[in-house]
From TrEMBL:
InterPro entries in the record: Bact_HTH_transcr_reg (IPR050679), Chorismate_lyase_/UTRA_dom_sf (IPR028978), TreR (IPR012770), Tscrpt_reg_HTH_GntR (IPR000524), UTRA (IPR011663), WH-like_DNA-bd_sf (IPR036388), WH_DNA-bd_sf (IPR036390)
Gene Ontology molecular functions: DNA binding; DNA-binding transcription factor activity
Gene that encodes the chain: treR
Annotated organism of origin: Oceanobacillus indicireducens
Domain of life: Bacteria
Protein name as annotated: Trehalose operon repressor
Keyword annotations of the record: DNA-binding, Repressor, Transcription, Transcription regulation
Transmembrane intervals: none
Gene Ontology BP annotations: negative regulation of DNA-templated transcription
Domain HTH gntR-type: 2-70
PANTHER family: HTH-TYPE TRANSCRIPTIONAL REGULATOR TRER, MANNOSYL-D-GLYCERATE TRANSPORT/METABOLISM SYSTEM REPRESSOR MNGR-RELATED
Length: 237
């Protein structure tokens, strides 16, 4: 016989899949579910944790358990694709907002990300990405001016990679990436729609040209309910 929390989980899944609650709806509170299923809050909490793990709900502090779209956007971890290429491929209703476009002096602390020398300035680009009207990604990019001598707001709103490859005729080679989960910063809360969310998924990348030159460092900060990050792996004997 199934444990009670699994029986409750299965019943909640059935209700969600049969549209008992629509995407964005709040589930009843733990107290209400405890009364409905005649069990303890601890048992209900186990059921809700399993719903969260399997992508049916997002627990939002101060609100409760919100039903989410299980069809999260799949963003590849391996490979190098621009955001515009991904949104076109996934057919997303997306918009890019440019918040910062500036040159940083070589001695600026952020220059360490690109390991530049004392003569090379850095482009700093900060953008938010809206999907269906919600600001869900904060991209913070740094480009070595030696390789990217000019940027404009128009280029940053469309595709910097398209400009690099088709206007500057540079060949982007490979990237080293790190993925971590972090507590949102003050900047995250100011620029993203994070009400109730207590973490963000951060991908930091060092991107190299074909000749191995390091030309870009990027920090991409994602709201956790909208994305899953996928990779392809092959066992090598």
């Amino acid at each position: 016989m199934l444990k009670k929390y699994l029986m409750i989980y299965n019943d909640l899944v059935r209700k969600i899949e049969e549209n008992g609650w629509a995407i964005g709806d709040l589930l009843p509170s733990e107290n209400e579910l405890s009364a409905e299923y005649e069990t303890s809050r601890e048992t209900i909490r186990k059921s809700l944790d399993l719903l969260s793990q399997n992508g049916y709900i997002q627990k939002i502090q101060g609100k409760g358990s919100v039903v989410i779209d299980r069809n999260k956007f799949s963003f590849p971890v391996s490979g190098i694709q621009s955001y515009s290429e991904l949104t076109e491929k996934l057919k997303l209703n997306s918009r890019t907002n440019v918040h910062t476009l500036e040159r940083l002096k070589p001695e600026d602390q952020t220059a360490k990300f690109l390991k530049t020398d004392s003569t090379e300035s850095i482009w700093n680009v900060i953008r938010t990405r809206e999907i269906d009207g919600e600001r869900v990604i904060l991209d913070k990019d740094y480009f070595n001016e030696k390789y990217v001598p000019m940027l404009s707001k128009e280029i940053c709103q469309t595709s910097i990679y398209d400009y690099i490859e088709n206007k500057l005729n540079l060949v982007i080679g490979f990237a080293k990436k790190e993925i971590v989960v972090e507590t949102p910063t003050k900047e995250d809360y100011e620029l993203l729609d994070l009400e109730g969310f207590t973490n963000v998924v951060v991908i930091r990348s060092q991107v190299h040209l074909e000749d191995t030159s390091l030309f870009q460092f990027t920090e991409s900060r994602h709201r956790p309910d909208k994305f899953r990050f996928v990779d392809f792996a092959r066992r090598v004997n």
